[in-house]
Sequence to fold (499 residues):
Amino acid sequence: MMTKHRIGRVQLPWANLEPPIRSPNYYKNLEEKKRVGATLEAERQRRGKSVDLGSAAAIISKKLIGKSDTCVFRPSSRPASDPDKILLIEEDAEILTITDQEEKRRHREQYATEQEKLEIEEGIRENPSLDVETQKAIIEDYRALHQQIKDEGLYQCRYSEYAKESIRYALLFAAFAGLLYIKWYLTSAIFLGLFWQQIMFTAHDAGHRGITGNFVADTLIGAFIADFCCGLSIGWWKSSHNVHHLITNMPEHDPDIQNIPLFSTSPTYMKSILSSFYNFQFVWDAACDFLVPYQKYLYYPIMGLARFNLYFLGWLHLCSPRAAQLGAAWWTRHVELVFMCCYWYLFGYLLVWVTLPTWPIRIGFVLISHLVTMVLHVQITLSHWAMPTSDLGPTESFPQRQMRTTMDVECPAWLDWFHGGLQFQAVHHLFPRVPRHNLRRGQELVREFSAKTGIKYHCYGFVEGNKVVLSRLEQVSQMVKIMVDCQKYMAETGESGLH
Fold:
């Protein structure tokens, strides 16, 4: 649309600027004023006092985020025996009454902000300078790398590799069907799960238009595999995954890491963020305080059941306005609905209900087939859940942020089939449309790019990478435990008004 109005091109540096309305602080301040205003109004009516709600809300909004040590918060000025909760606002020398919940939230946000600052400092210390000249040089090297990728023909899909992939998929499906025929029901479920795990790698390729390069063809391939064969919505996946690629590991914007109260990979979630993707407030509540400290132990069990959540998210997407507002691609929603209905007819009715003889076998078959796909969900989360979620500011270049927030998995070439390209996530995030079977060569070039620019290239073995993820989950869990213990201590002692 805009191309026809272009009169020229100027190769100048672009100064990134985040629109205020896209900043989490924009929404946060609005919610803050509403919440504090409601509290003050209730107190005013109860006490019969006149309070300027506008100025009071503005004052509290500025004071809510302050400096604090790990477990040191500013105490209130009232004695512990006072039944009212008092916060002294020095600027106006005015005493305002607030609730225990407001005080706890304030302390929680202070603590989360302090942890964010520590992560930002670490990110600045371990990565190239964020000054304009350094980042400009990185961008120029990135463009040169992209040109080398194109010159070497790495955007050309090697269809012979997909012929090999198809043989493997056919063998897995044949094993499932054969074992089902001889009534080895639970064993056949294992091979159905392996079939699902393997074939979804090609759906991922199609979602990135990495097979034919044609939107219609790749969309149909992706829908057939994801919706018809696996019961998962390729439309939902593209909707969230494209955003994930743009703003990787940003707590307020990346839907792939917005998983509270089950998981929190960032202290930012303690602030109760508003998701720009879901337009939904992820509130940090008592469930988060209870569950997040155990997330290291919940990780694998929940990954084993994650496929059921994908069913739900897929249908939720297809029934939402987001799936209907696709312009010229309106037809994709109808294709997905037909394919997913076919999946549930074939899998849910003909296979589980009609073919399997008893309820114990039905339940066992469904659980086993879905548990086998756990490895896919681990592979998906492995590349980002262990990585930083800090925002180093608008001057950080795209390639630096992608490499800083993404890890690769080291594996021999003969094992590439097992990971399906997900072991090259750093390379993939730099060049999302490079076909999967060319990513190993791309990895070599990215290693050279890393050495030249000074951006650290994170790469671990599969087992070691799992340990890094669990370590990150444990790290955030400890943050939450410290915060909860501090709040309990203050509530017991009456310090800072928490009792």
Remarks:
- DSSP finds 19 helices and six strands in the chain.
